[in-house]
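Query structure, 381 tokens:
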């Protein structure tokens, strides 16, 4: 612990006196404590009031007393092997009780806040489910009263081991990420000064193959004429997604008058994604425009559950041996556009990703078609 007395020249009063503050530092983390003393700017040096000040003989012993009391509190906490931060020292010095919340209480608070700001029901639900899974592991090991300051690698390993019995590595890591968010909040509250999740060597995410239609499969689907009007509507919605990159909820929120704009004689779609509220900006591609015109800009929407059920039927009829879902349509857009020669930056912008890293990690697979296109473009033999 380091204790430093300094003059806060930014807070000079009308009498041209500045307050003396005490800075408490523990493990590179610091906080300020007001001493209640004021002196002229030229009457303070090296942590002490100069002798020419009328109250020097009173002020300097008081500064020494503050330092002694802080050292005494620090020693007491060390002997008790308790967690120490500058804020804990400050509150004990000021006789204010320091009561950090337990881990499960802070987890509850974080989830409630996250759900209030979430843009979709699925995101809200995912927070709730992950919270329940973590609490099951905590209760199973009788750790309901654990504080964030007590969380270490052993605790995280216990949570991981419990979750891997039922879930895969990718989904388990999402739970560890949530615990990391709780510890970040604990750092902000000055309960702790280290996020153990950052240093924990968790199992790396498994890279899943992208399920998406090839350009040939997409053309095959969009050219197929269904006998059932119901299936034709669903097929058209799916193709519309494949040419816009819309998630299901974004397609439901789409309004032609609101989201289609004429920019330099070309039609563009500008819509904020429901999941992240990040803006997607893309040209209104010809096939998407054709479908909108077919339905007079009013798409024949249906529930997500029915939509996915009909897509399975459509894949069987058309002869596409892939599990078609609303997600594969969005993936199809990304893969097709990359194979057509669009840069990763452009695809990221069109899909409304918050960061290009998301696009790079999701669409890292390079197809032979894209390599061939690059070869033709560069005329490399």
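Result returned for the query:
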């Amino acid at each position: 612990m380091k204790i430093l007395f300094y003059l806060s020249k930014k807070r000079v009063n009308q009498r041209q006196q500045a307050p003396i503050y005490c800075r408490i530092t523990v493990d590179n983390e610091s906080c300020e404590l007001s001493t209640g003393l004021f002196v002229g700017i030229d009457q303070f040096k090296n942590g002490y009031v100069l002798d020419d000040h009328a109250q020097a003989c009173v002020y300097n012993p008081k500064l020494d007393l503050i330092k002694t009391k802080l050292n005494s509190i620090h020693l007491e906490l060390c002997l008790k092997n308790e967690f120490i931060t500058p804020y804990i020292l400050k509150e004990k010095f000021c006789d204010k009780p320091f009561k950090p919340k337990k881990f499960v209480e802070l987890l509850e608070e974080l989830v409630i806040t996250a759900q209030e700001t979430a843009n979709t029901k699925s995101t809200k639900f995912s927070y709730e489910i992950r919270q329940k899974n973590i609490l099951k592991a905590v209760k199973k090991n009788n750790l309901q009263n654990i504080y964030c300051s007590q969380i270490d690698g052993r605790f995280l390993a216990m949570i991981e081991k419990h979750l891997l019995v039922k879930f895969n590595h990718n989904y388990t890591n999402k739970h560890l990420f949530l615990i990391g968010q709780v510890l970040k909040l604990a750092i902000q509250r000055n309960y702790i000064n280290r996020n153990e999740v950052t240093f924990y060597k968790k199992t790396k995410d498994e890279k899943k193959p992208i399920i998406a239609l090839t350009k040939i499969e997409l053309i095959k689907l969009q050219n197929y004429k269904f006998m059932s009007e119901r299936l034709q509507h669903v097929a058209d919605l799916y193709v519309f997604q494949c040419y816009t990159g819309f998630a299901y909820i974004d397609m439901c929120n789409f309004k032609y008058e609101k989201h289609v704009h004429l920019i330099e004689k070309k039609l563009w779609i500008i819509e904020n994604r429901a999941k992240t509220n990040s803006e997607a900006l893309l040209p209104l591609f010809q096939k998407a425009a054709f479908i909108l015109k077919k339905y007079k800009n009013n798409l024949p929407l249906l529930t997500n559950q029915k939509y996915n059920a009909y897509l399975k039927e459509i894949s069987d009829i058309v002869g596409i041996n892939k599990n078609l879902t609303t997600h594969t349509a969005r993936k199809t857009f990304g893969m097709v556009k990359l194979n057509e020669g669009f840069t990763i930056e452009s695809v990221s912008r069109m899909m409304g990703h918050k960061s290009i890293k998301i696009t790079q990690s999701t669409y890292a697979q390079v197809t032979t078609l894209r390599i061939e296109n690059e070869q033709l473009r560069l005329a490399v033999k």
